[in-house]
Amino acid sequence: VTASPDAHMANGSSVQKQCSALNSTLEGSFTLRCQAGSVTVESFCEASCLTSAQASFTVGAYSVTASPDAHMANGSSVQKQCSALNSTLEGSFTLRCQAGSVTVESFCEASCLTSAQASFTVGAHSVSTSPDARMANGASAQKQCSVLNNALSGSVTLRCVQGDFRLEPACTASCLTSHTAALVVGPYTLSVSPDSTMVTGSSAQKQCSAVNAGLEGSLTLLCESGEFKVKSACVASCLTTFQAPFTTGIYNLVASPDSRMAHGSLQLKQCATVNADLSGILTLRCEAGYLSIQSSSCEPSCLPSSQISLTVGGHNVYSLVASPASVIAHGASQQQQCATLNSVLDGTFTLSCTSGSLGVVSACVPSCPSSTQAPFTVGIYNVIASPASRMAHGTSQQQQCATLNSILDGIFTLSCTSGSLGVVSACVPSCPRSAQAPFTVGVYNVLASPASRMAHGTSVQMQCSALNSQLSGTYELHCEQGSLRVASACGAVCPSNVQVSVAVGGSQWPVVTGAPIAHSSTQLLACPSEFTGSITMQCINGVTSLQSHSCVPRSCGAGISVNLVIGSSSKTYNSPALIAHGGTSNLPCTYVEQSYLGSIVLGCNYGVLSISSFQCAGAPCLANPSFNIQVGWVTLPVATPLLENSASQTLACSSINSQFSGEMYLRCNDGNLLADTSSCVQMEVGCLPTGQGISVRLGDSTYLLQPSSPVAAGNSWQVSCGSIRPGWEGTLTAFCGSLGSITADDSVCVPVSCSAGQPAQITVFGVMYTVSSPEEIADGRGVWMSCQDIAGDYGGNALLECNGGRIDADASRCTASSCAANTASSVTLHETTKVLSLSAELLTGASQEFSCADVNPDYTGTGHLRCVISTVTPDTSACTCQGQSCSNNPCSASLQLSVELSGIQVSKSIGQELPSSGTTSVSCDSMVAGHDGQMEVECTGSVLRIVSSTCRPRGCTSATPGTTVVVGGSSIVMASRDSQHGERLSVTDCSYVHSGYSGLIEARCERGSVVADTTCLGLPCENEIRQISVEGLNFQIELDGSQLGGQSPAASGFDVNLGCEALSRNLEGTFKLTCLAGNFNFQPSCIVRRCPAPGRASSSQSSLSAVDASGQLILNPRFEHSCGASLATDQTCRIFCAEGWRGAIQTWRCNMGFFTGPLPTCTLLPVKVEVKGSHKLEVSNPTAFVKDPLAKRGVERQIARTSGVEESDVNATLSLAESSTLASGGRRLATAVKVDYVIVQRVQAESPEEAQGLAAGLGSQISTSLGQASDDDMAAEITQAIAEVARETNVVASVYEVKVLERVVQPLAIFAGGRSMPIENITALENSDDFNVTTTSTTTTSLAALQNESSSNHDTSEDEENQSNLPLILGFVAGISVMACFGFILGVYCGRRAVRRERGAEDEETWNKKALREAAESPVPLPPLEPQEASTGTRETGEQVVVQNILGQEDSQASNALNRQNTGGSEGSVKRFLI
Prior knowledge:
Blueprint: E1 14-18, E2 26-27, E3 29-35, E4 38-43, E5 46-47, E6 55-59, E7 62-66, E8 77-81, E9 89-90, E10 92-98, E11 101-106, E12 109-110, E13 118-122, E14 125-129, E15 140-144, H1 145-148, E16 152-161, E17 164-173, E18 181-185, E19 188-192, E20 203-207, H2 208-211, E21 215-216, E22 218-224, E23 227-232, E24 235-236, E25 244-248, E26 251-255, E27 266-270, E28 278-279, E29 281-287, E30 290-296, E31 299-300, E32 308-312, E33 318-322, E34 333-337, E35 345-346, E36 348-354, E37 357-362, E38 365-366, E39 374-378, E40 381-385, E41 396-400, E42 408-409, E43 411-417, E44 420-425, E45 428-429, E46 437-441, E47 444-448, E48 459-463, E49 474-480, E50 483-488, E51 499-504, E52 507-512, E53 522-526, E54 531-532, E55 534-540, E56 543-549, E57 552-553, E58 561-566, E59 569-574, E60 584-588, E61 596-605, E62 608-618, E63 624-631, E64 634-640, E65 648-652, E66 660-661, E67 663-669, E68 672-676, E69 681-682, E70 694-698, E71 701-705, E72 716-720, H3 721-724, E73 728-729, E74 731-736, E75 742-744, E76 750-751, E77 759-764, ...
Parallel strand pairs: 111-113
Antiparallel strand pairs: 1-3, 2-5, 3-4, 6-7, 8-10, 9-12, 10-11, 13-14, 15-16, 16-17, 18-19, 20-22, 21-24, 22-23, 25-26, 27-29, 28-31, 29-30, 32-33, 34-36, 35-38, 36-37, 39-40, 41-43, 42-45, 43-44, 46-47, 48-49, 49-50, 51-52, 53-55, 54-57, 55-56, 58-59, 60-61, 61-62, 63-64, 65-67, 66-69, 67-68, ...
């Protein structure tokens, strides 16, 4: 509740109010007080309980809820009846109100109604019951069990506990006559019931036979807790109705007892009572009601109806069936005649019976009846013999052969064996007159027959001429076994020019004979041109055949060369040895190109060496389970499949580095798997813990700095220098830039220095000392300390080094001086002192004995002079005083005591004087540091000796400070534990401290301190496969010390600088490689290998391509290229045919220093010589002459003879023309015949240069021949030629008078596309690289013709038109145009001036070249670029001469394209764009 003043209250005032004003359920009052503006309450309110208040409680199994009937004041109570809550409840309960809550004090009890029910089980009986009347809580009642179930007896107690109805049964179950129990006895399954009701625990007896007549014995019936049970002693017998099955022979039978059989009894039974065909006795056995056959001797007989099959074999096989003549008992037998089975058979057979089954033993054999046949052959006659009468087995019979065939002589004998006839023949056939024997004599096929019948073995001689008049000699007929045989001595001549196929080298080769060959004679011929040796042909009876030959296929001799080309590489192979025809020589593809696999097989075929098999291919890239790919700073192994050469595979960049997007490509290049990650693009994700990080250098070590959590781009974070490298101090600030880049100034990190006076432990010759740094030492630096400053007589210097704020002391350079020979030492015994010297040099720790008596005669024993760090110390502890004078002498405080503890020898004074026989205790640690215990020292006769000692080297505990060991910049603290002196504390592998080191660090306890011995050495660097990215390509390289100037594995400290080609032939540049502690530090400055531009061979006869000693590709002069100075990988250039050659342009690609791509197939352009000429003839009848075909042919024949060419190479045209002749009246015009002719000769050459030379020579030769002939000779030859043609064609020729008036001859060289060149200009061009002529004095070479020629010669051959020829061309054109005395000179001069102006206008030329290229690439015609009229010269015929400037190899295509656009390919007005 919340209370407020009803009115304004002064500070310190109070007011009392009724609680009911706040809540109607409240009673009492409360006081409000005002204090400093705040209201406080002092409450005396009490809450009452309303009728809605509830209190729940449980009575037995009942849960009830009570509420006040009326409002209850706080602290009041009210009593109520329990039945008001539940009718089953009795008694009362009290409700109390306390602070508004109702509580219950219950005295309720629950009764049990008649509806309550409970159940129980007795044996197999489940029963339930209810109270007969309502039962109060705690009440009980009795009920008889039989009332609940008639099978029960006894009583049950009913109880009510707080409403819970419960039963306490004392019932027992009975067994009724309706109860059953199963009984199994032998084969019987029965049901048994009590004869009367049985109480639980009772039993009764019953006979088994009462249950089943087949049973014997008795049963015990039991009733247990109402469950009926049977205890059996019954056994089953076997009745006569029982059956036992059995099998004998072919019979499946059953047997039954003749009378009832008791259990375990036997019964005998006759087998015949079961089946009449059986004999013997059965024994039946009865066991537990089961009948079985214990034993049986029943066996079946064999009846006459039984059958058995048998086979009697021989020549004829008889399949028979035999049966008994009568019953055969088991084990008996019966014999019968074989004839009863088949009349052909002789002998007997025996039947036997076994268990009803027949057996047979046969002695039957077949005979041979007269119908038996035996075929046989006599010579060429097939005959069949049969017996004259039946033949028994094993008999024989003889007959005459003539009974079989009248042509036969002799006898034959038949024999019968098992029904099969055998024949022994002595029959021989004769040869009748009708017999014929064909044979061949040369080309003649003849047929010989005897003049009369010839007996076997006889012969007759006959004349060959009787067979054919062309034959001579005799032949003999021989009759052998009815066949004629001919022994011929007939002969025939072989004709001439007979072609015979000769098998040589597995093929047939035609050979033609010469003159006729006499019978039995030979003729020697040469082998075919593909072979060496000779052939001998023979003539036998007119037939020419091969007798023998020594033809051997021509071999390929040593030194024969063949050019091999693989990819862009070529190499000439010179056969090192003779290769026989058909032989081969295998070359690996690596002979030509190292990166190719497979082989080249060179074969020799009849002296020609060629490539018979070419199976070269770039090496595939094998499957790699861990191919390292680097994307950004992450390198991961990826399983790659087998990739064929040039094949590729695509991978997501994010599969290697999640901070990159895009795809990368794996490509197989000649066995090298390359990863192209140039398309991988880094995403902006800030700086991640998995990012590339940045290397910071602290001292001599480099560490990777990465953020521990993501940092957004533009933010920074700080790192303690000590967390990067222990022993360093400062705070490093790292800034996150774009794409995960990190910048950090590692100069802020400085190593912790070692301060002056800082202590350190150092062990010198097994003794540990504590030293202090004489000055401050910077990290990584050191100072030298004299070993003498550490301990008196040490030599050398010790090194104190500062390592991350800790001082490491090295005493390995400290030396302990030896004691030189003759070093003196004073020895005092009592009051006698004597100087003794060393007889030889002693090392530190060694000693030399002396006699104590030599020092003082009163002493005995042996003393020692000990060398301790170049100082000789006497040890007299073994000297004993024997005299009275010395026995009481004391030991002075300065007297030294020699002690050796833990191998350390010292001589020290004990610091006090001892009387004779006096003793004292000395701390072991005071003598030799690091020892515990005391030693008792006694003074005897001025000699100190140790009487007893408990000295022991001090052990170590877990509290003993450990020692720090530094390995490769990393450190480890070797901790202590409870241990003894000299005990090994721990052994740590050096690799645990630094993975790049091997060896052991062994810590041991040394006189209470932890010391460590190390054998740590830097690991060598094993051969390593790495992936490096160069210009966006991934290369797999091998870091192998043995291949890089060192050894494998490379020793730690290995350092080398080499060229990148040592890593991969595809790389250039340099790299630095160092090995430190098992890790290679690889610093490459490599680039992908460039492709140098191909060179040019000096001769067209050289190989198409080759590689020189420097590795540069050299091309045949027939090729040109646009590759520039060099190309980077994947850059391309064009390879095209040079001037004078035609072929398609090919593209070459640079692939890491090697060009890939095919060479163009360049065909030499055709070149011919065309000689044009004309002359005028004065003819008696010019009109008829022009129309006369004989005259035309006569003129052509004369020209051909004069020029030395074939008549078909000359084409002449006759026409009428005017000529000026000198007559008596002066000069007059007359009609003449003009002869225009063209002589065409094709030039066969291997190169354009050779073609030009041959064309010049042939043209000059023809021109000279035509020019040297006189006019009269030509006229006479024309008339003679006309007459010859007339005779040849059988035509009457007209007679003409011919006179030659004037002649003109112009030889030209005609190139592809119709371009021509005067022969006289070729010589000049051969000596000039600047000019080409494209016009003649008599023909027009139009721009369209030039364009057509360029098209046929492809793009690259267009350059052959005019290569900077302008000065001579312009001069030549001007000379023709002017046609005056000084025209030619003036034209040349003007032309050269124009060229000089052109060469000075380079800017204009550059602009025009660009325009021309754009025109060539444009798919639509371009407008003229401000053209000017081209320079032209006009001849008498009005022909135009076109001059075109050639811009260069790459611009000729553009120039021609632009010309075609502006001229339309016509021969009309031509405009120029650059002169």
